[in-house]
Amino acid sequence: MLRTMFLTGVTALSFSGGTQGAMAKDYFLASGRWDNVVLVIDLEKAIDPANDGTAKAVVNRLRVTPDIEVDGKTVISSGQPITIAIAPDYKRAYAINHSGRTRPEAAAAFQHGHAGTVTVIDLKKALDPASNNTLAAVEGYIETGGFGPTGFAITADGKHAALAHAEREGDEDGGRHISIVDLATNKVIQRIEQAYGKPGFPCPPDPVPHRAPDPKFGCFPDTNGVTISPLGGGTIFGANGGTDDISVISLQKAIAGAAGAEVARIPVQAGGFGISTSPDGKLVAHASRENAQTDTPGNTVSIIDVEKALSDPAKAEVARVLVGTDDKSVPTRPFVAAFLPDGKRILSTHFRSNNIDFIDVEKAIAGQPATIKRVELKTPGGEPSRPRGIAITPDGKYAAITGAPKGKPNSSVIWIVDLASYEVKGRVTEIGNESYMIGAFQAP
Description:
Blueprint: E1 11-12, E2 25-31, E3 37-42, H1 43-46, E4 58-63, E5 67-70, E6 73-76, E7 81-86, E8 92-97, H2 104-109, E9 115-122, H3 123-126, E10 138-154, E11 160-168, E12 171-174, E13 177-182, E14 187-193, E15 223-229, E16 235-240, E17 245-250, H4 251-256, E18 262-267, E19 271-277, E20 283-291, E21 296-297, E22 300-305, H5 306-311, E23 317-322, E24 334-339, E25 345-350, E26 355-360, H6 361-365, E27 371-376, E28 390-392, E29 398-403, E30 413-418, E31 424-429, E32 438-443
Parallel strand pairs: 1-32
Antiparallel strand pairs: 2-3, 2-32, 3-4, 5-6, 7-8, 8-9, 9-10, 10-11, 11-12, 11-13, 13-14, 15-16, 16-17, 17-18, 19-20, 20-21, 20-22, 22-23, 24-25, 25-26, 26-27, 28-29, 29-30, 30-31
């Protein structure tokens, strides 16, 4: 049976292969985006009160983008690592680089529309002190064959991954395919073309929008996050930032390159980013981030019934939950919606309202008030928390959340939240610049 971990918003793994050792330790792997690093964080150190508001829990800073030659000088390329995915054999991590090997000045001038790459990371080497500030943990790079890559979801057998591209060359709009990656060869083997949206004007628009917001968005799906359910022989779900809906794609047809791989579209409140699958594969949670036509942030999380998505997609959205606020008129810009390991709760992050919500899944589907707890996140320096990515430890005890505004190097923060008490147990600083997604793993 195919099964994936929660991807794009949350990943977890155990090096023990399902049998956790008594001396095993928990770590997080965080994207550092503009600092072009991936950071390794020690959970035990992160929840030590003496380390709150410091960088003492950071074990290693791994370089993940290669050197390039610019005007005769060697410089670090601006790859913008934004997403972390963990292989099910617990040996590798994948950092999705939104701008690949781009010249730093080109990425700074316009952060979108660059050719992407995926960095393959050896997780054992990631913990080696010798890997700090070097490329020593990098096994290689995957050429994505697209622009502005974002989401990356791995099948449970570890053989393939679904890779989303949110953009086209030079533009923030224009993403219209999902790539299938063979992880044995680290090669893209299929490109699944997605349908145009239905914005009420001819597609594609002329010209294609260069950047959001633009009223001509709506033709290209511009997929951000992806996740996979085992149902239906394997089904990919893509959070479409350009068309305010979710793509439903047959994994088997996608791997085979067969026609008709995209089988449905499910409308949601706004274009999403973080999306996840429940542990039993029956539900998908989608965070409605914003509308690219108007730049209007969303404020809901959608819960999708996978079986209905395959049989009757018009009825697949079984709940739409207001998050981050009790006022429907208040925009909160949800970033990630992640199922917790118990399958009974969803954790969501809200960039605008600077808080997180814990949602009762059963109550949400029943149409009842479903917010279990709302937690405000505070930075050590008093800046807005701007929460984004989520990772959950394999034992389901803690969540790590990335955030803080884009700014100078090492300006991001991670919050560690106890999932039983809903209390913040620690804050780790100096987590790159505009840290996005994060993963969790366990090692001896």
